[in-house]
Q: What sequence folds into this?
């Protein structure tokens, strides 16, 4: 930035951005990198305080473990590096005394933080939200991390969260006011707030209601994969969106042997060829209904059996909603949920999500299906997981 001349600059070309990656554009020059991170931290701290900051406070903030004397020396070096990075504009914006340092941003500079503030105070509609997302490109100076500077990092994270929550609240007010949003705008929200479930849920639901089931299913699986990688569980309402591409119909009959398996087991048939045999990654979960109660009365026993059948049908339906396969056990109250798509981490995440969702919703399902004068029995879920490669016969 040292080649630019202040007098020749056009005010419209001066732009400062803090959301997402830091960027300062003056004329034809753009500043994004500094000698080291604490130089950028110094600039950001001065920018957001908008008033002179005591040198001793800055030294303690950015060099907390080096003592006041060493901290002041480091601060002078960082200030020198900041002047070099800013070039000639440094004389215009930096106000330095023996006791304080200040950054005086010219009013003519376009500042994304102020523009964002104005939009947040405006009308909550789709057009404003679209413009808002153009300015909010990510968290406040998202590339800046100083874990060794505890107080500075705490201050920065607090500011990031405050701005993030303000944008999310504004977006939610827009979504509540409008039944249908442009798909591109919902996709932009999902991209900007990848870990925020309600935006994913709104996008998947809208795509499904529009008949774009393949796109909805893809978005659904992508978010489940993201949650799996971060060790989180989806909300039950998000899992229920799978009903759009799963009809939930279940044939409660035996599972006859078909295809290659039937031919292999039948006497006198030809052996399998190599191209009929595959190996696949498969993750399974055995789920059992543990019924607790006194079944001395035949009427009560019959009611419990009916309840168990309905609950097993419900478990199978929930498994199908997530795209899994369900094998009923040889005895009542036992079933096997199977997932064979994606990688093992995603498969296990889907199984755990299935279990957690069913465990939380089980009391409501018991109340919905219990039809007897007796008190409903206590029912809990027990489960076991396994994952590995298996021989697959199509």
A:
């Amino acid at each position: 930035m040292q080649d630019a001349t202040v007098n020749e600059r056009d005010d419209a070309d001066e732009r400062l951005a803090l959301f997402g990656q830091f960027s300062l554009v003056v004329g034809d020059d753009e500043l994004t990198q500094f000698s080291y991170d604490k130089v950028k931290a110094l600039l950001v701290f001065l920018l957001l305080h908008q008033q002179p900051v005591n040198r001793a406070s800055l030294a303690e903030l950015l060099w907390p473990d080096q003592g006041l004397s060493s901290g002041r020396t480091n601060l002078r070096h960082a200030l020198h590096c900041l002047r070099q990075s800013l070039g000639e504009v440094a004389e215009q914006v930096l106000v330095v005394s023996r006791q304080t340092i200040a950054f005086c941003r010219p009013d003519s500079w376009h500042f994304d933080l102020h523009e964002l503030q104005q939009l947040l105070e405006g009308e909550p509609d789709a057009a404003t939200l679209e413009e808002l997302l153009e300015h909010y490109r990510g968290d406040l100076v998202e590339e800046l991390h100083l874990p060794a500077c505890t107080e500075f990092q705490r201050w920065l994270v607090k500011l990031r969260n405050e701005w993030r929550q303000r944008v999310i609240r504004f977006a939610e007010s827009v979504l509540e006011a409008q039944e249908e949003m442009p798909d591109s705008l919902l996709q932009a929200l999902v991209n900007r707030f990848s870990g925020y479930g309600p935006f994913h849920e709104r996008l998947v639901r809208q795509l499904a209601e529009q008949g774009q089931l393949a796109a909805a299913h893809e978005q659904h699986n992508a978010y489940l994969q993201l949650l799996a990688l971060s060790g989180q569980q989806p909300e039950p309402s998000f899992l229920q969106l799978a009903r759009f591409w799963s009809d939930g119909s279940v044939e409660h009959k035996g599972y006859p042997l078909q295809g290659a398996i039937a031919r292999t087991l039948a006497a006198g048939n030809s052996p399998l060829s190599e191209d009929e045999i595959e190996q696949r990654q498969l993750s399974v979960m055995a789920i059992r209904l543990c019924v607790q109660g006194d079944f001395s009365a035949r009427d009560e026993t019959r009611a419990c059996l009916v309840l168990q059948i309905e609950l097993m049908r419900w478990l199978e339906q929930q498994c199908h909603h997530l795209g899994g396969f369900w094998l009923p056990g040889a005895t009542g109250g036992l079933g096997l949920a199977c997932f064979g798509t994606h990688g093992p981490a995603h498969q296990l995440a889907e199984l755990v999500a299935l279990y957690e969702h069913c465990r939380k919703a089980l009391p409501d399902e018991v109340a919905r299906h219990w039809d007897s004068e007796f008190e409903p029995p206590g029912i809990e879920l027990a489960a076991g997981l396994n994952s590995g490669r298996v021989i697959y016969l199509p």
Observations:
- The chain has 14 helices and eleven strands.
